[in-house]
Structure formats: C-alpha cells, structure tokens
Design brief:
Blueprint lengths: L15 E3 L11 E5 L9 H15 L7 E5 L3 H12 L3 E7 L4 H9 L3 E5 L11 H11 L3 E3 L7 H17 L6 E5 L4 H13 L5 E7 L41 E5 L1 H15 L5 H14 L8 E5 L13 H6 L13 H4 L2 H4 L4 E2 L4 H8 L6 E5 L14 E6 H9 L19 E3 L4 H9 L4 E6 L2 E7 L8
Parallel strand pairs: 2-10, 3-4, 3-6, 4-5, 7-8, 7-10, 8-9, 11-12, 14-15
Antiparallel strand pairs: 1-2, 12-13, 15-16
Helix pairs in contact: 1-2, 1-5, 5-6, 7-8
Bound molecules: 4'-deoxy-4'-aminopyridoxal-5'-phosphate (PMP).
Length: about 475
Amino acid sequence: MTVFESVQDAIGGTPLFRLTRLGAGIAAPVYAKAEFLSIGGSVKDRAALSMVLAAEQDGSLRPGGTIIEATSGNTGIGLALVGRLRGYRVIVGVSDRSSVEKSDILRAYGAEVVVAPAALPKQHPDHLFNVVRRLAAEIPGAWLANQYDNPANPDAHVRTTGPEIWEQTAGRITHFVAGVGTGGTISGTGGYLKKVSGGAVTVVGADPEASEYGGGDGSPYFVESIGHFVHPETVEDVWPQSFHPEVVDRFERISDRESLLTARSLAREEGLLAGPSSGTAVAAALRVARTLGPDDLVVVLLPDSGRSYLSKLYSDDWLREWGFLEEPGGEPTVRELLGRPDGADLVTVAAGSTLGAALTVLSGVPGGVAPVVTPRPERPFGLSGTDVVGSLAAAEVEAALAEGRARPTDPITALRGRPLPTVGVGQPLSAARALFEAGHPAAVVLLDGRVAGLIRHAQLPDGR
Ligand code: PMP
C-alpha cells in the first residue's frame, strides 16, 4: 500500500482502465485514464499544483498571499486543495452554468466562491473573467492563476500525464483522445506523446458539436468545462494560450445527447462514474477506435467524477426537463402536442428588435406571445434553451403603444417579460398543465436542450 507524506504527492499518478463493455467488438483496445482518482477529484489538480509552484518560484505568489481564479470548478478545487495546504487564501469565481456540487466542494475545501452569470459577452464588466481580474487588482498580495494563458498549465501534463501514459502503455499508444477546455491537457499530454513517439501518436480533440474549437458556431451546449462558447455580442474573442491547436490532428464533434448518454453508460456498464466531458471524450474515442485495428491502442482521458453532476446528467428529472430523456409508455408526454399544427412553427423575437418590428412578428402568432432570444446570425444547431432570454406579449405592446407609453421605434427592452417556462419533450402533460395553471401563457418545449416548439394551454387535450 502506498504511503504519502503529503496530500500533494497524491495528485496525478492515475490508473488506466480498459473499456471492456463499451469497447466490445472493437478491435483496438481502448483504455480510460481515470483522472477522478487524483486526490482532488480531477485532472485539474495537476495544473493547479504546477501553477502554484511556478508562481511561488517566480515570486508572483508570496506567503500570506491570495490565490484567485476563474474556473468551471475543477481548477478551483485543485487550487483550493493545494492553496490551503500551503497556507494561502483562495477565491474562486465560477459561472452559473457550473454544477452546484462543484461550488459546494470548493467551499468544503475552504475556498471563497463568487458566482457570475455565464451568458454575458466577454467585454461585460460582470463577465467572470472581469470579476476575477478586478478582485486580483483590489486585493493586496493577490495572484491570478489564469489557467487559460499560464504555461505552467500545459507544462504539468508534459511533465506528468504524458509520461505516465507512455509508461503505462509501454509506448504502445497510437491515439490519444481528450476534450479541450483551456487546452492544457491535450496540448501538454498530446505534445509530449507526439514528441516521445517521434510523431507516431495521433491526437484527437473531443469537442461538443456547437463548440468553436471543432468548427461549431460557438452557441451554448450542455457539457461543462470543455469546448469554446462565444456569446453573440462578444466583440473580441481569443482562444486560450494554453491550447496549442497544432497538437490536435483532428476533432471528433459530439452532440450533447451522445455525451450525456455515453457518460451514463460509462457508469452503468463499466463502473466508471465520470462527468459529462468524459462522456464526450469516450464517445469520440469509441468512434476513433472503430476505424482502427488490433495493433492500435487508444487512450482516452476522463477528467473528473460523476459525483459532481448528480443534480444534472445523473438526475433523470434534469435530463427530462431539458428534453434529453423520453421514456416510452406510461403517461402521455409533451411530445404529443409538438406534432400539432398550431404548435409547429416557432416564432421568436430577437432581443434587439423594436416594438414595431416585434408587433409585426407577433401578429401571426396564436396566443400572441413569443420567446425573446439572443440574436445569432446563424443557428446551424437550432435555438438553444439557454438562448431564450425573455418573452413578449402582443397585447402588452399594443396597449403601451395605444396609451402613448412607448413608440414603435423604441427597443422592446422595457416590455420584455421573463422567459417563458420550459418543458422537456419527455415530460408528462401534467407538467405542462401545472405551468399553465400557474398562469404562464405558453411554454417552450425542449428537445436535446434545444428549442423544439411552443405549446399553449388551449392545446391540452381537454382544452382550458
Ligand atoms: N473536463 C473537465 C471536467 C474539466 O474541469 C476540464 C478543465 N476545464 C476539462 C475537461 C478540460 O481540460 P483542459 O482545461 O486541460 O483543457
């Protein structure tokens, strides 16, 4: 049995597990590197330790100092663990798209947590990056870890993850598959494996379909911590310097549904309880492995544990609410209403519209209410549930114009109501009925996290 003199020594050094069930019938062996077995529970322990040690060495972090970071959660957990061990105050900014479990874990390790809204353009003062930058400027002795541009992040993987995999596979690895968040993991590990193999290892990025890294439109998606989301109002967008795109030979683009369901299979069939980004990575790895032969060897990296997502992808209710889960049989579900002609064409109002333009749009809508959405030039993946930012009712616009409270050239902003409630396509009709009885005029129907239509009270089988 291993004995550690310091918890820090239990960072990394994670085992590989062969995927025997999900990989059944595939000639090339697929091994999963279980980063959730690192002491802080994720791959980011490695980057956190590496960045703290580098900052101590170059003098940017001194005794009594404060560590500050913006993170989807795991880097913060690593920084909290390492930082508190080494005597620092730790402040972590997370987005409201990160799971609540991660914030709870951060607090448990002694970090102070600041939550910022995810749906903001980068230049907005309340964007997570600006919030932590301000804190770092205001607090004496503060050091901003900045995993996105900190070379000690990819370097952690050049020194540890890469060599571990090379040694564990006795140099037999031919393909390395991982997701890309800051890019530290894939750049450092992939870069090392390419170098040590003389260029023989192929590096595959596993990316959410909508993410910009693999060629998506940057619209929202449901796998947290990987991919590149771009708010449509972002003025200047740059990719992290921790990501070295030249290391990635190609991307496999994976839908939210496939990522979430693959993660669930990983737990149920392989006994590996991992997070959604592990689902993306494994789905990509299996796709890659199916094209390979018995002499190839695929290693896929599982960044964190499913325990941080019990309220999300491991909750049947959550999956059903976002339209990822439909169970045949039982009570009639919302899907039944979607096929009806009056629910079919979804009309939306762009958030930047004028009242006059919006009224023209609303005039053809049954019930006279439509979702207000963030404008995006193109939506190849449809409208995301998180793109819906409000609602607008024709009756209210007409009244405001008639009473002279507003003019047709005014923006809709003042009359914009709260977003219509959403209901997953697999939820029972009783769930929709409860929303209407609570006074909502309509509900947005979600399928795979995307907007599939609008339903109104009058559509329920026994009408109003
Ligand atoms: N998956 C999870 C769960 C993560 O927390 C992260 C880190 N953001 C990643 C994947 C991506 O790792 P990296 O930042 O090294 O690209």
